[in-house]
C-alpha cells in the first residue's frame, strides 16, 4: 500500500491481527484430496436447524427481492413472548458479534478501559483495541472468570466489563447467584456485558441467569445468539436485552437491515420448536459424557464444560496436533491464539463424528 495511504489508517488498527475462524471443510478436502471430512472447530450444532426452519426458509426465499423488516418486528415479538420481556428492550444483530460491536461503539473511546478475563472470547480485545480503548485482562481462576479479581480491576475510566457465561473457549460456568452477587457489587455507572452465546446448553444442566434480570440492573446488557443451539450459524442472527434507554442507543448505531429476511424468519420459527431444541441439547449432553470418558481413559486432562465443546490438554503443541488431524479428515481448534498452547478445543459432534475424532486422535500419536 502507498505510504501516504497508510498514514490515513486509524493507529488503533495497526497492531491488530484478524480473527481466525475455524478451517472450512471445503478447504480441507481440496487441500488434501479427501472427502467426508468432519469439522469440530467452530462450536456449531452438528444436528443442524429444525426441519420447520428449513421449510420456512424454502417459502421465504421467494421474497428475497424485498428488503427485510428493518425493525425485525415479528422476531422481536417472538423473543419477547417466549422470555416474558419487553420488545423495546431488544436489539437485533447480525450474530451476537454484532451486538458486541454495538455496545463497544456506543460506550468506548480512547479515554476508556475495559475489563475482561484471561482466556475469554478473542473478539473482546479485538474490539477494544480497534476503538483505542485500554484492555484490562484479569487473570483467570480455574480456567474461568475470577469475579473478585475483576471487581478489583475496575478503574475510574472503565466503561464495560465483559463476561462470557459459559466461557468460550474453556466452557467454564459461573453459577446464577454468583453472577447476581457480582452485579450487585459493580458500580452502577459501569456496563456489564453478559455474553450468553451458549445459554441453552448451560441452562439445560444448571440454572442460569434469565433475561428478565435486566429489570433489576440498568447497567446490564445480555446477548444471545441463534448460531449455536438453534443451528443457524450460517444465517448470522443474535440479539441483546437491556434497559430500554440502552437499547435505544444501540439501535441508533445498528445498520439498516442488518439481519436478512431468511435469518429473521428462521430465528422466529426456531424459537417455536422446543422439541428439536430438546433433541439437540440431550444429544450434546450424552455425547459430552462419552467424550469425557474417552479423555479419562486415555489420560487427557479436560476442562468441565457447560457448552457444546470441550477444551482439553492434548499433551503436545496443539498446533502440531491440529495439523496432524487435518490429513485424517478432522478439523479441531488449536488454542494457541488464547495462549493455551497445549490445549485443543473440540466441538461436540454427532455420535458418528465423535467416534471418528476419538479414533483419529489416537492415530495421530502413533
Summarize the structure.
By secondary structure, the protein is of the alpha/beta class.
Structure commentary:
Helices cover 40% and strands 15% of the residues. The chain is α/β, with parallel strands linked by helices and 366 residues long. The strands form three sheets. It has a seven-stranded mixed β-sheet, with helices on both faces. The protein has a four-stranded antiparallel β-sheet with strand order 9-10-13-12, covered by helices on one side. Strand 3 (113-117), helix 7 (123-130) and strand 4 form a beta-alpha-beta unit.
What is the overall silhouette? Answer: globular
User: What is the mean predicted local confidence, pLDDT?
Assistant: 95
Overall tally of domains: 2
Order of helices and strands: HHHEHHEHEHEHEHEHEEHHHEEHEEEH
CATH class of the largest domain: Alpha Beta
> What's the helix count?
15
Number of strands: 13
List its salient traits.
40% helix; 366 residues; Aspartate Aminotransferase, domain 2; 13 strands; 2 domains; seven-stranded mixed sheet; alpha/beta; globular; four-stranded antiparallel sheet; Aspartate Aminotransferase, domain 1
